[in-house]
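Structure first, sequence second, as always.
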Protein backbone atom coordinates (compact mmCIF):
# COMPACT_ATOMS: atom_id res chain seq x y z
CA UNK A 1 0.00 0.00 0.00
CA UNK A 2 1.40 3.39 -0.93
CA UNK A 3 2.20 5.84 1.85
CA UNK A 4 1.35 9.38 0.85
CA UNK A 5 4.52 11.44 1.00
CA UNK A 6 3.92 14.85 2.54
CA UNK A 7 5.44 17.72 0.66
CA UNK A 8 5.96 21.38 1.36
CA UNK A 9 3.37 23.87 0.23
CA UNK A 10 4.20 25.51 -3.08
CA UNK A 11 2.89 28.96 -3.83
CA UNK A 12 1.75 28.57 -7.39
CA UNK A 13 -0.05 31.90 -7.42
CA UNK A 14 3.05 33.85 -8.35
CA UNK A 15 5.35 31.18 -9.75
CA UNK A 16 4.53 31.79 -13.41
CA UNK A 17 4.68 35.56 -13.22
CA UNK A 18 7.65 35.94 -10.92
CA UNK A 19 9.64 32.75 -11.48
CA UNK A 20 9.58 32.25 -7.73
CA UNK A 21 9.03 28.63 -6.61
CA UNK A 22 8.44 29.82 -3.08
CA UNK A 23 7.05 27.98 -0.08
CA UNK A 24 5.27 30.38 2.23
CA UNK A 25 4.89 30.05 5.96
CA UNK A 26 5.65 31.49 9.35
CA UNK A 27 8.64 33.58 10.28
CA UNK A 28 11.66 31.43 10.95
CA UNK A 29 14.14 31.99 13.73
CA UNK A 30 17.64 31.45 12.37
CA UNK A 31 20.89 30.89 14.19
CA UNK A 32 22.74 33.68 12.41
CA UNK A 33 21.58 37.16 11.47
CA UNK A 34 20.14 36.83 7.94
CA UNK A 35 21.03 40.43 7.06
CA UNK A 36 24.63 39.87 8.12
CA UNK A 37 24.87 36.61 6.18
CA UNK A 38 23.46 38.25 3.07
CA UNK A 39 26.31 40.75 2.99
CA UNK A 40 28.54 37.87 1.92
CA UNK A 41 26.76 37.65 -1.42
CA UNK A 42 29.17 39.55 -3.65
CA UNK A 43 27.15 39.45 -6.87
CA UNK A 44 23.59 40.09 -7.99
CA UNK A 45 23.18 36.53 -9.31
CA UNK A 46 24.57 34.98 -6.14
CA UNK A 47 22.31 37.00 -3.85
CA UNK A 48 19.24 36.36 -6.02
CA UNK A 49 19.86 32.62 -6.13
CA UNK A 50 20.46 32.52 -2.38
CA UNK A 51 17.21 34.42 -1.82
CA UNK A 52 15.22 32.07 -4.02
CA UNK A 53 16.77 29.04 -2.32
CA UNK A 54 15.91 30.44 1.12
CA UNK A 55 12.33 31.08 -0.05
CA UNK A 56 12.00 27.49 -1.27
CA UNK A 57 13.32 26.35 2.13
CA UNK A 58 10.67 28.54 3.81
CA UNK A 59 13.32 30.68 5.50
CA UNK A 60 11.56 33.91 4.65
CA UNK A 61 13.63 36.24 6.83
CA UNK A 62 16.78 35.05 5.09
CA UNK A 63 15.12 35.26 1.67
CA UNK A 64 14.19 38.89 2.35
CA UNK A 65 17.75 39.71 3.39
CA UNK A 66 19.20 38.15 0.23
CA UNK A 67 16.67 39.84 -2.07
CA UNK A 68 17.56 43.17 -0.46
CA UNK A 69 21.22 42.38 -0.99
CA UNK A 70 20.56 41.54 -4.66
CA UNK A 71 18.82 44.90 -5.07
CA UNK A 72 21.89 46.67 -3.72
CA UNK A 73 23.63 45.34 -6.85
CA UNK A 74 20.71 45.91 -9.25
CA UNK A 75 18.20 48.33 -7.63
CA UNK A 76 15.83 48.48 -10.58
CA UNK A 77 15.55 44.80 -11.44
CA UNK A 78 11.76 44.32 -11.63
CA UNK A 79 11.76 40.58 -11.03
CA UNK A 80 13.75 40.87 -7.82
CA UNK A 81 11.64 43.78 -6.60
CA UNK A 82 8.56 41.67 -7.24
CA UNK A 83 10.03 38.67 -5.44
CA UNK A 84 10.95 40.80 -2.43
CA UNK A 85 7.39 42.18 -2.26
CA UNK A 86 5.85 38.70 -2.47
CA UNK A 87 8.16 37.39 0.23
CA UNK A 88 7.30 40.31 2.49
CA UNK A 89 3.56 39.74 2.27
CA UNK A 90 3.95 36.01 2.85
CA UNK A 91 6.04 36.92 5.86
CA UNK A 92 3.19 39.13 7.10
CA UNK A 93 5.21 42.35 7.05
CA UNK A 94 2.59 44.76 5.73
CA UNK A 95 4.50 47.96 6.47
CA UNK A 96 7.61 46.80 4.64
CA UNK A 97 5.46 45.50 1.76
CA UNK A 98 3.75 48.89 1.52
CA UNK A 99 7.14 50.59 1.26
CA UNK A 100 8.21 48.11 -1.42
CA UNK A 101 5.01 48.25 -3.51
CA UNK A 102 6.01 51.26 -5.65
CA UNK A 103 9.01 49.33 -6.94
CA UNK A 104 6.98 46.39 -8.24
CA UNK A 105 5.81 45.90 -11.81
CA UNK A 106 2.25 45.40 -13.05
CA UNK A 107 2.36 41.64 -13.52
CA UNK A 108 -1.28 40.52 -13.98
CA UNK A 109 -1.11 37.98 -11.14
CA UNK A 110 0.63 40.41 -8.81
CA UNK A 111 -1.58 43.50 -9.15
CA UNK A 112 -4.71 42.29 -7.27
CA UNK A 113 -2.66 40.82 -4.43
CA UNK A 114 -0.68 44.05 -4.21
CA UNK A 115 -3.95 45.95 -3.86
CA UNK A 116 -5.07 43.54 -1.14
CA UNK A 117 -1.84 43.98 0.80
CA UNK A 118 -1.88 47.77 0.45
CA UNK A 119 -5.51 47.85 1.56
CA UNK A 120 -4.69 45.80 4.64
CA UNK A 121 -1.69 48.00 5.43
CA UNK A 122 -3.97 51.03 5.29
CA UNK A 123 -6.63 49.36 7.43
CA UNK A 124 -4.01 48.29 9.96
CA UNK A 125 -2.94 51.93 10.18
CA UNK A 126 -6.50 53.24 10.57
CA UNK A 127 -6.57 54.73 7.06
CA UNK A 128 -9.95 53.20 6.30
CA UNK A 129 -11.01 55.49 3.45
CA UNK A 130 -7.77 54.64 1.64
CA UNK A 131 -8.26 50.92 2.23
CA UNK A 132 -11.73 50.67 0.66
CA UNK A 133 -10.79 51.33 -3.01
CA UNK A 134 -7.83 48.97 -2.60
CA UNK A 135 -10.17 46.21 -1.50
CA UNK A 136 -12.54 47.01 -4.37
CA UNK A 137 -9.68 46.45 -6.80
CA UNK A 138 -9.14 42.97 -5.39
CA UNK A 139 -12.47 41.69 -6.72
CA UNK A 140 -13.15 40.03 -10.07
CA UNK A 141 -13.82 36.35 -9.26
CA UNK A 142 -16.35 34.81 -6.83
CA UNK A 143 -13.76 34.14 -4.12
CA UNK A 144 -12.05 37.51 -4.53
CA UNK A 145 -15.43 39.26 -4.62
CA UNK A 146 -16.39 37.71 -1.29
CA UNK A 147 -13.10 38.66 0.38
CA UNK A 148 -13.23 42.12 -1.20
CA UNK A 149 -16.77 42.78 0.04
CA UNK A 150 -16.12 41.54 3.58
CA UNK A 151 -12.95 43.63 3.90
CA UNK A 152 -14.72 46.71 2.55
CA UNK A 153 -17.44 46.22 5.14
CA UNK A 154 -14.94 46.01 7.99
CA UNK A 155 -13.18 49.14 6.72
CA UNK A 156 -16.53 50.95 6.65
CA UNK A 157 -17.15 49.78 10.21
CA UNK A 158 -13.74 51.22 11.08
CA UNK A 159 -14.91 54.55 9.70
CA UNK A 160 -17.97 54.38 11.96
CA UNK A 161 -20.33 53.68 9.03
CA UNK A 162 -22.02 50.60 10.45
CA UNK A 163 -25.22 50.85 8.38
CA UNK A 164 -23.21 51.18 5.19
CA UNK A 165 -21.02 48.27 6.26
CA UNK A 166 -24.05 46.03 6.75
CA UNK A 167 -25.52 47.11 3.41
CA UNK A 168 -22.23 46.18 1.76
CA UNK A 169 -22.35 42.68 3.23
CA UNK A 170 -26.04 42.24 2.46
CA UNK A 171 -25.41 43.25 -1.15
CA UNK A 172 -22.86 40.48 -1.70
CA UNK A 173 -24.38 38.10 -4.21
CA UNK A 174 -22.77 34.85 -5.20
CA UNK A 175 -22.90 31.07 -4.83
CA UNK A 176 -24.85 29.54 -1.92
CA UNK A 177 -21.63 29.08 0.06
CA UNK A 178 -21.44 32.88 0.43
CA UNK A 179 -24.30 32.88 2.94
CA UNK A 180 -22.51 31.57 6.02
CA UNK A 181 -19.64 34.03 5.56
CA UNK A 182 -21.92 37.00 4.97
CA UNK A 183 -24.29 36.22 7.82
CA UNK A 184 -21.49 35.65 10.30
CA UNK A 185 -19.60 38.82 9.35
CA UNK A 186 -22.75 40.93 9.29
CA UNK A 187 -23.61 39.60 12.74
CA UNK A 188 -20.12 40.36 14.00
CA UNK A 189 -20.29 43.93 12.65
CA UNK A 190 -23.72 44.45 14.25
CA UNK A 191 -22.49 43.03 17.56
CA UNK A 192 -19.37 45.19 17.50
CA UNK A 193 -21.55 48.26 16.97
CA UNK A 194 -23.77 47.31 19.93
CA UNK A 195 -26.85 46.19 17.97
CA UNK A 196 -27.39 42.86 19.74
CA UNK A 197 -30.84 42.21 18.27
CA UNK A 198 -29.59 42.54 14.70
CA UNK A 199 -26.49 40.49 15.50
CA UNK A 200 -28.64 37.70 16.96
CA UNK A 201 -30.78 37.67 13.79
CA UNK A 202 -27.75 37.32 11.49
CA UNK A 203 -26.14 34.66 13.69
CA UNK A 204 -29.35 32.62 13.85
CA UNK A 205 -29.56 32.68 10.05
CA UNK A 206 -25.96 31.48 9.91
CA UNK A 207 -26.62 28.75 12.49
CA UNK A 208 -29.36 27.25 10.34
CA UNK A 209 -27.02 26.98 7.33
CA UNK A 210 -26.22 23.26 7.43
CA UNK A 211 -24.76 23.35 3.92
CA UNK A 212 -22.54 26.26 4.91
CA UNK A 213 -21.33 24.31 7.93
CA UNK A 214 -20.12 21.54 5.65
CA UNK A 215 -18.30 24.11 3.50
CA UNK A 216 -16.71 25.99 6.37
CA UNK A 217 -16.96 24.31 9.79
CA UNK A 218 -14.58 26.90 11.24
CA UNK A 219 -16.93 29.75 10.34
CA UNK A 220 -19.84 27.79 11.77
CA UNK A 221 -17.82 27.31 14.95
CA UNK A 222 -17.26 31.07 15.13
CA UNK A 223 -21.01 31.53 14.68
CA UNK A 224 -21.78 29.12 17.51
CA UNK A 225 -19.32 30.83 19.86
CA UNK A 226 -20.63 34.28 18.93
CA UNK A 227 -24.32 33.42 19.37
CA UNK A 228 -23.62 31.50 22.57
CA UNK A 229 -21.72 34.48 23.95
CA UNK A 230 -24.61 36.84 23.16
CA UNK A 231 -27.21 34.54 24.72
CA UNK A 232 -25.09 33.76 27.78
CA UNK A 233 -24.37 37.44 28.39
CA UNK A 234 -28.10 38.15 28.15
CA UNK A 235 -28.76 35.48 30.80
CA UNK A 236 -30.28 33.05 28.29
CA UNK A 237 -28.24 30.05 29.45
CA UNK A 238 -30.63 27.50 27.93
CA UNK A 239 -30.50 29.18 24.51
CA UNK A 240 -26.72 29.34 24.68
CA UNK A 241 -26.52 25.61 25.43
CA UNK A 242 -29.06 24.84 22.69
CA UNK A 243 -26.81 26.67 20.24
CA UNK A 244 -23.95 24.33 21.13
CA UNK A 245 -26.24 21.32 20.84
CA UNK A 246 -27.29 22.41 17.35
CA UNK A 247 -23.65 22.61 16.33
CA UNK A 248 -23.10 19.04 17.52
CA UNK A 249 -25.67 17.81 15.01
CA UNK A 250 -23.48 19.28 12.27
CA UNK A 251 -20.53 17.16 13.36
CA UNK A 252 -18.47 20.06 14.68
CA UNK A 253 -15.51 19.00 16.77
CA UNK A 254 -16.58 18.11 20.34
CA UNK A 255 -13.06 18.89 21.57
CA UNK A 256 -13.78 22.55 20.74
CA UNK A 257 -17.49 22.60 21.61
CA UNK A 258 -17.09 21.03 25.06
CA UNK A 259 -15.04 23.94 26.49
CA UNK A 260 -17.70 26.36 25.21
CA UNK A 261 -20.44 24.36 26.96
CA UNK A 262 -18.40 24.18 30.17
CA UNK A 263 -17.94 27.96 30.20
CA UNK A 264 -21.67 28.53 29.67
CA UNK A 265 -22.57 26.16 32.51
CA UNK A 266 -19.99 27.74 34.81
CA UNK A 267 -21.15 31.26 33.96
CA UNK A 268 -17.69 32.17 32.66
CA UNK A 269 -17.24 34.60 29.76
CA UNK A 270 -16.89 33.07 26.30
CA UNK A 271 -14.30 34.11 23.74
CA UNK A 272 -15.16 37.62 22.62
CA UNK A 273 -16.29 38.78 19.18
CA UNK A 274 -14.12 41.06 17.04
CA UNK A 275 -14.19 44.64 18.28
CA UNK A 276 -11.96 46.45 15.78
CA UNK A 277 -11.83 46.63 12.01
CA UNK A 278 -8.45 44.88 12.06
CA UNK A 279 -9.84 41.99 14.10
CA UNK A 280 -12.85 41.69 11.79
CA UNK A 281 -10.72 41.75 8.64
CA UNK A 282 -8.35 39.19 10.11
CA UNK A 283 -11.31 36.97 10.93
CA UNK A 284 -12.67 37.22 7.38
CA UNK A 285 -9.30 36.18 5.94
CA UNK A 286 -9.05 33.31 8.41
CA UNK A 287 -12.57 32.08 7.64
CA UNK A 288 -11.94 31.90 3.91
CA UNK A 289 -8.51 30.33 4.43
CA UNK A 290 -10.00 27.66 6.70
CA UNK A 291 -12.65 26.79 4.11
CA UNK A 292 -10.12 26.65 1.28
CA UNK A 293 -7.74 24.52 3.31
CA UNK A 294 -10.19 21.63 3.02
CA UNK A 295 -9.87 21.83 -0.76
CA UNK A 296 -6.09 22.03 -0.91
CA UNK A 297 -5.67 25.62 -2.16
CA UNK A 298 -2.41 25.83 -0.28
CA UNK A 299 -0.95 29.00 -1.77
CA UNK A 300 -3.87 31.28 -1.05
CA UNK A 301 -4.48 29.61 2.32
CA UNK A 302 -0.95 30.43 3.41
CA UNK A 303 -1.20 33.99 2.11
CA UNK A 304 -4.49 34.71 3.86
CA UNK A 305 -3.22 33.25 7.12
CA UNK A 306 -0.02 35.30 6.96
CA UNK A 307 -2.06 38.45 6.40
CA UNK A 308 -4.52 37.51 9.15
CA UNK A 309 -1.66 37.00 11.59
CA UNK A 310 -0.23 40.38 10.61
CA UNK A 311 -3.52 42.03 11.62
CA UNK A 312 -4.03 40.03 14.83
CA UNK A 313 -0.69 38.65 16.04
CA UNK A 314 -2.20 36.75 19.00
CA UNK A 315 -5.24 35.09 17.42
CA UNK A 316 -5.69 31.46 18.57
CA UNK A 317 -7.75 30.57 15.49
CA UNK A 318 -4.92 31.67 13.23
CA UNK A 319 -2.28 29.96 15.39
CA UNK A 320 -4.13 26.68 15.25
CA UNK A 321 -4.73 26.67 11.50
CA UNK A 322 -1.17 27.77 10.77
CA UNK A 323 0.00 24.88 12.91
CA UNK A 324 -2.24 22.45 11.04
CA UNK A 325 -0.92 23.71 7.69
CA UNK A 326 2.68 23.46 8.90
CA UNK A 327 2.10 19.90 10.12
CA UNK A 328 0.57 18.89 6.78
CA UNK A 329 3.54 20.56 5.14
CA UNK A 330 5.90 18.27 7.06
CA UNK A 331 7.23 21.14 9.18
CA UNK A 332 6.74 19.80 12.72
CA UNK A 333 8.99 22.35 14.44
CA UNK A 334 7.02 25.25 13.01
CA UNK A 335 3.77 23.46 13.81
CA UNK A 336 4.88 22.98 17.40
CA UNK A 337 5.73 26.66 17.72
CA UNK A 338 2.19 27.62 16.70
CA UNK A 339 0.36 25.04 18.80
CA UNK A 340 2.38 25.91 21.90
CA UNK A 341 1.27 29.57 21.64
CA UNK A 342 -2.43 28.76 22.11
CA UNK A 343 -3.58 29.66 25.65
CA UNK A 344 -5.40 27.26 27.95
CA UNK A 345 -8.64 29.23 27.83
CA UNK A 346 -8.90 29.02 24.01
CA UNK A 347 -11.48 26.57 22.56
CA UNK A 348 -8.73 25.04 20.41
CA UNK A 349 -6.46 24.29 23.37
CA UNK A 350 -7.27 20.58 23.66
CA UNK A 351 -6.86 20.03 19.92
CA UNK A 352 -3.61 21.97 19.98
CA UNK A 353 -2.34 19.74 22.80
CA UNK A 354 -3.10 16.67 20.69
CA UNK A 355 -1.38 18.22 17.69
CA UNK A 356 1.67 19.00 19.81
CA UNK A 357 2.07 15.30 20.51
CA UNK A 358 2.08 14.54 16.79
CA UNK A 359 4.51 17.38 16.12
CA UNK A 360 6.90 15.99 18.75
CA UNK A 361 6.74 12.63 16.99
CA UNK A 362 7.44 14.40 13.70
CA UNK A 363 10.65 15.68 15.27
CA UNK A 364 11.55 12.09 16.29
CA UNK A 365 11.00 13.01 19.94
CA UNK A 366 8.97 9.85 20.40
CA UNK A 367 9.35 9.43 24.14
CA UNK A 368 8.08 12.97 24.71
CA UNK A 369 5.25 12.42 22.25
CA UNK A 370 4.11 9.21 23.96
CA UNK A 371 4.28 10.75 27.44
CA UNK A 372 2.43 13.86 26.29
CA UNK A 373 -0.40 11.96 24.59
CA UNK A 374 -0.68 9.33 27.31
CA UNK A 375 -1.22 12.12 29.84
CA UNK A 376 -3.98 13.55 27.64
CA UNK A 377 -5.70 10.15 27.51
CA UNK A 378 -5.52 9.89 31.29
CA UNK A 379 -7.03 13.38 31.61
CA UNK A 380 -9.95 12.55 29.30
CA UNK A 381 -10.21 8.78 28.72
CA UNK A 382 -13.31 9.16 26.53
CA UNK A 383 -11.65 11.51 24.05
CA UNK A 384 -11.22 9.31 20.97
CA UNK A 385 -8.86 11.78 19.34
CA UNK A 386 -6.17 11.24 21.93
CA UNK A 387 -6.17 7.51 21.21
CA UNK A 388 -5.97 8.19 17.48
CA UNK A 389 -3.09 10.62 17.95
CA UNK A 390 -1.08 8.21 20.10
CA UNK A 391 -1.86 5.36 17.70
CA UNK A 392 -0.33 7.51 14.97
CA UNK A 393 2.88 7.77 16.99
CA UNK A 394 3.00 3.99 17.44
CA UNK A 395 2.33 3.55 13.73
CA UNK A 396 5.21 5.89 12.88
CA UNK A 397 7.48 3.70 15.00
CA UNK A 398 5.99 0.56 13.45
CA UNK A 399 5.03 -0.66 16.91
CA UNK A 400 1.79 -2.19 15.72
CA UNK A 401 1.30 -4.35 18.78
CA UNK A 402 1.31 -1.30 21.05
CA UNK A 403 -1.01 0.40 18.54
CA UNK A 404 -3.46 -2.50 18.64
CA UNK A 405 -3.35 -2.71 22.45
CA UNK A 406 -4.03 1.02 22.76
CA UNK A 407 -6.99 0.88 20.39
CA UNK A 408 -8.34 -2.16 22.24
CA UNK A 409 -8.57 0.17 25.25
CA UNK A 410 -10.38 2.75 23.13
CA UNK A 411 -12.91 0.17 21.92
CA UNK A 412 -13.57 -0.85 25.52
CA UNK A 413 -14.27 2.80 26.38
CA UNK A 414 -16.68 3.02 23.43
CA UNK A 415 -18.66 0.05 24.71
CA UNK A 416 -21.28 -1.93 22.81
CA UNK A 417 -22.91 1.08 21.13
CA UNK A 418 -20.55 2.97 18.85
CA UNK A 419 -21.29 6.29 17.17
CA UNK A 420 -20.46 7.41 13.65
CA UNK A 421 -17.42 9.35 14.84
CA UNK A 422 -15.90 6.12 16.21
CA UNK A 423 -15.20 4.77 12.73
CA UNK A 424 -11.60 5.97 12.93
CA UNK A 425 -10.87 3.87 16.01
CA UNK A 426 -11.97 0.67 14.28
CA UNK A 427 -10.23 1.63 11.03
CA UNK A 428 -6.93 2.33 12.77
CA UNK A 429 -7.17 -0.86 14.83
CA UNK A 430 -7.84 -2.78 11.63
CA UNK A 431 -4.63 -1.36 10.18
CA UNK A 432 -2.70 -2.40 13.30
CA UNK A 433 -4.00 -5.98 13.12
CA UNK A 434 -3.41 -6.13 9.36
CA UNK A 435 0.22 -5.10 9.88
CA UNK A 436 0.48 -7.77 12.59
CA UNK A 437 -0.81 -10.27 9.99
CA UNK A 438 -3.89 -11.00 12.09
CA UNK A 439 -6.42 -10.67 9.31
CA UNK A 440 -9.10 -12.50 11.24
CA UNK A 441 -9.13 -9.51 13.63
CA UNK A 442 -8.44 -6.78 11.04
CA UNK A 443 -11.25 -7.56 8.58
CA UNK A 444 -14.11 -7.22 11.11
CA UNK A 445 -12.73 -3.83 12.17
CA UNK A 446 -12.68 -2.54 8.59
CA UNK A 447 -16.23 -3.76 8.08
CA UNK A 448 -17.31 -2.18 11.37
CA UNK A 449 -15.75 1.12 10.29
CA UNK A 450 -17.80 0.99 7.08
CA UNK A 451 -20.98 0.27 9.07
CA UNK A 452 -20.37 3.40 11.11
CA UNK A 453 -19.27 5.51 8.14
CA UNK A 454 -20.59 3.96 4.92
CA UNK A 455 -18.51 4.61 1.79
CA UNK A 456 -15.60 6.14 3.71
CA UNK A 457 -12.96 6.24 0.94
CA UNK A 458 -9.91 5.42 3.08
CA UNK A 459 -11.60 2.33 4.50
CA UNK A 460 -12.94 1.27 1.10
CA UNK A 461 -9.44 1.60 -0.32
CA UNK A 462 -7.69 -0.30 2.46
CA UNK A 463 -10.17 -3.16 2.69
CA UNK A 464 -10.47 -3.55 -1.08
CA UNK A 465 -6.74 -3.60 -1.61
CA UNK A 466 -6.19 -6.03 1.28
CA UNK A 467 -8.66 -8.48 -0.24
CA UNK A 468 -7.00 -8.31 -3.64
CA UNK A 469 -3.54 -8.66 -2.14
CA UNK A 470 -4.65 -11.89 -0.48
CA UNK A 471 -6.39 -13.23 -3.55
CA UNK A 472 -9.86 -13.19 -1.99
CA UNK A 473 -13.07 -11.35 -2.86
CA UNK A 474 -11.37 -10.06 -6.00
CA UNK A 475 -14.36 -8.54 -7.77
CA UNK A 476 -15.71 -6.96 -4.59
CA UNK A 477 -12.27 -5.68 -3.62
CA UNK A 478 -11.73 -3.98 -6.95
CA UNK A 479 -15.20 -2.47 -6.71
CA UNK A 480 -14.42 -1.01 -3.27
CA UNK A 481 -11.25 0.64 -4.56
CA UNK A 482 -13.09 2.01 -7.59
CA UNK A 483 -15.72 3.50 -5.24
CA UNK A 484 -12.91 5.20 -3.31
CA UNK A 485 -11.45 6.59 -6.53
CA UNK A 486 -14.88 7.81 -7.64
CA UNK A 487 -15.10 9.84 -4.43
CA UNK A 488 -11.54 11.11 -4.55
CA UNK A 489 -10.44 11.08 -8.18
CA UNK A 490 -7.63 13.54 -7.46
CA UNK A 491 -6.11 11.58 -4.57
CA UNK A 492 -2.88 10.09 -5.92
CA UNK A 493 -2.66 7.66 -3.00
CA UNK A 494 -6.03 6.08 -3.78
CA UNK A 495 -5.55 6.13 -7.57
CA UNK A 496 -2.21 4.40 -7.02
CA UNK A 497 -4.03 1.67 -5.08
CA UNK A 498 -6.36 1.12 -8.02
CA UNK A 499 -3.45 0.91 -10.44
CA UNK A 500 -1.51 -1.40 -8.18
CA UNK A 501 -4.57 -3.60 -7.70
CA UNK A 502 -4.80 -3.96 -11.48
CA UNK A 503 -1.12 -4.85 -11.53
CA UNK A 504 -1.56 -7.49 -8.84
CA UNK A 505 -4.42 -8.93 -10.87
CA UNK A 506 -2.23 -9.14 -13.98
CA UNK A 507 -4.18 -6.42 -15.81
CA UNK A 508 -1.05 -4.50 -16.74
CA UNK A 509 -2.43 -2.11 -19.35
CA UNK A 510 -5.11 -1.01 -16.90
CA UNK A 511 -2.40 -0.66 -14.27
CA UNK A 512 -0.31 1.59 -16.53
CA UNK A 513 -3.30 3.84 -17.22
CA UNK A 514 -4.12 4.39 -13.55
CA UNK A 515 -0.52 4.59 -12.31
CA UNK A 516 0.36 7.21 -14.93
CA UNK A 517 -2.53 9.25 -13.56
CA UNK A 518 -1.39 8.69 -9.97
CA UNK A 519 2.12 9.92 -10.77
CA UNK A 520 0.69 13.15 -12.16
CA UNK A 521 -1.57 13.62 -9.13
CA UNK A 522 1.15 12.91 -6.58
CA UNK A 523 4.49 13.84 -8.09
CA UNK A 524 7.52 12.93 -6.05
CA UNK A 525 6.11 9.86 -4.27
CA UNK A 526 8.77 7.15 -4.75
CA UNK A 527 6.38 4.25 -4.17
CA UNK A 528 4.06 5.37 -6.95
CA UNK A 529 7.00 5.79 -9.31
CA UNK A 530 8.20 2.31 -8.37
CA UNK A 531 4.76 0.88 -9.10
CA UNK A 532 4.62 2.61 -12.46
CA UNK A 533 8.06 1.22 -13.30
CA UNK A 534 6.85 -2.29 -12.56
CA UNK A 535 3.80 -1.80 -14.77
CA UNK A 536 5.89 -0.39 -17.62
CA UNK A 537 8.19 -3.41 -17.43
CA UNK A 538 5.30 -5.83 -17.69
CA UNK A 539 3.98 -4.17 -20.87
CA UNK A 540 7.41 -4.11 -22.48
CA UNK A 541 8.29 -0.43 -21.89
CA UNK A 542 11.56 -1.37 -20.22
CA UNK A 543 13.56 1.85 -20.66
CA UNK A 544 10.68 3.81 -19.17
CA UNK A 545 10.49 1.30 -16.33
CA UNK A 546 14.15 1.79 -15.46
CA UNK A 547 13.68 5.57 -15.58
CA UNK A 548 10.79 5.36 -13.09
CA UNK A 549 12.77 3.10 -10.74
CA UNK A 550 15.71 5.51 -10.85
CA UNK A 551 13.38 8.41 -10.19
CA UNK A 552 11.91 6.57 -7.21
CA UNK A 553 15.43 5.93 -5.91
CA UNK A 554 16.25 9.65 -6.15
CA UNK A 555 13.12 10.72 -4.23
CA UNK A 556 14.13 9.51 -0.76
CA UNK A 557 12.23 6.19 -0.79
CA UNK A 558 11.54 4.11 2.34
CA UNK A 559 14.63 2.18 3.41
CA UNK A 560 13.09 -1.22 2.66
CA UNK A 561 12.38 -0.14 -0.93
CA UNK A 562 16.00 0.82 -1.75
CA UNK A 563 17.51 -2.68 -2.29
CA UNK A 564 14.45 -3.73 -4.28
CA UNK A 565 14.83 -0.70 -6.58
CA UNK A 566 18.55 -1.29 -7.04
CA UNK A 567 17.91 -4.92 -7.96
CA UNK A 568 15.25 -3.96 -10.50
CA UNK A 569 17.49 -1.33 -12.09
CA UNK A 570 20.28 -3.89 -12.42
CA UNK A 571 18.30 -7.00 -13.34
CA UNK A 572 14.81 -5.97 -14.34
CA UNK A 573 11.56 -7.30 -12.87
CA UNK A 574 10.87 -10.99 -12.52
CA UNK A 575 7.25 -11.88 -11.86
CA UNK A 576 5.98 -15.40 -12.15
CA UNK A 577 2.50 -15.83 -13.61
CA UNK A 578 1.33 -17.78 -10.58
CA UNK A 579 2.27 -14.98 -8.17
CA UNK A 580 -0.76 -12.79 -8.91
CA UNK A 581 -3.74 -12.86 -6.54
CA UNK A 582 -5.94 -13.98 -9.42
CA UNK A 583 -3.71 -16.98 -10.09
CA UNK A 584 -3.67 -17.83 -6.40
CA UNK A 585 -7.43 -17.57 -6.18
CA UNK A 586 -7.93 -19.77 -9.23
CA UNK A 587 -5.40 -22.24 -7.86
CA UNK A 588 -7.43 -22.48 -4.68
CA UNK A 589 -10.59 -23.11 -6.64
CA UNK A 590 -11.92 -19.57 -6.09
CA UNK A 591 -14.64 -18.99 -8.66
CA UNK A 592 -14.59 -15.21 -8.22
CA UNK A 593 -13.52 -13.41 -11.40
CA UNK A 594 -12.35 -9.86 -11.92
CA UNK A 595 -14.62 -7.63 -13.96
Amino acid sequence: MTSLKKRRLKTMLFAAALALPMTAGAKDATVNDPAYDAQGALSFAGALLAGQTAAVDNDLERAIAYFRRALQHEPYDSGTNNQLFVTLIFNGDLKAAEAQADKTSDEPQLVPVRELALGLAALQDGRFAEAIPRFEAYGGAPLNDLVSGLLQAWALYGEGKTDEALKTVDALSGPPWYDLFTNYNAGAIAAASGDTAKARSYFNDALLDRQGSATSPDTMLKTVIALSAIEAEAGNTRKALDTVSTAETYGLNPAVLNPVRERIEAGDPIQSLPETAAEGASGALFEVAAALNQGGSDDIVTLYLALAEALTPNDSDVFYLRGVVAAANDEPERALSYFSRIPEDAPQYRLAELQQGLALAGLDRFDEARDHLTALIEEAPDDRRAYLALSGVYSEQKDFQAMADLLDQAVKRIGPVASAEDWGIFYRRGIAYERLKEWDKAEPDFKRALELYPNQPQVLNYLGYSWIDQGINLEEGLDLIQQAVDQRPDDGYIVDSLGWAYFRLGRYQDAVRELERAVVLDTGDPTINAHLGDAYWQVGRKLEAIYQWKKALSDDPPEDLVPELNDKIANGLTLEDDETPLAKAEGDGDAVKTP
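Margin note: The mean pLDDT is 87.
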